[in-house]
Amino acid sequence: MRTRDCYRVILGAEIRKQRKRLGCTQENLAEKAELSPNYVGRVERGEEHVSLAALRRIAKALNARVRDLLVGI
What pLDDT is attached to residue 3? Predict the structure, then answer.
């Protein structure tokens, strides 16, 4: 993995941490965020570039702020 792509892995790990904190599955999160469960899985694994719009929807579904998900980046 290229160094410049590491942010995706860090972001995905933070999303997974926040999702598990809520006791939520990827499917539940995807439904709340109106996104595909496959997309959410790829984002959590750092395989997918996430748009700002999708990141905002994920944050809202997690009852978090976008900046809370960007910790460590």
Answer: 61
Measured at the CA of 16, the angle between CA 45 and CA 38, to 5 degrees, comes to 50
Cβ–Cβ < 8 Å for 29, 58: yes
pTM: 0.91
Angle made by CA atoms 38, 26, 48, in degrees to the nearest 5: 40
**Based on the structure, what is the number of domains in the chain?**
1
CATH number, residue 40: 1.10.260.40
Query: Which residue type does 19 have?
Result: R
- Write the DSSP string, 22-72: TT--HHHHHHHHT--HHHHHHHHTT-S---HHHHHHHHHHTT--HHHHTTT
Contacts of 30 (CB under 8 A, 6+ apart): 36, 37, 39, 40
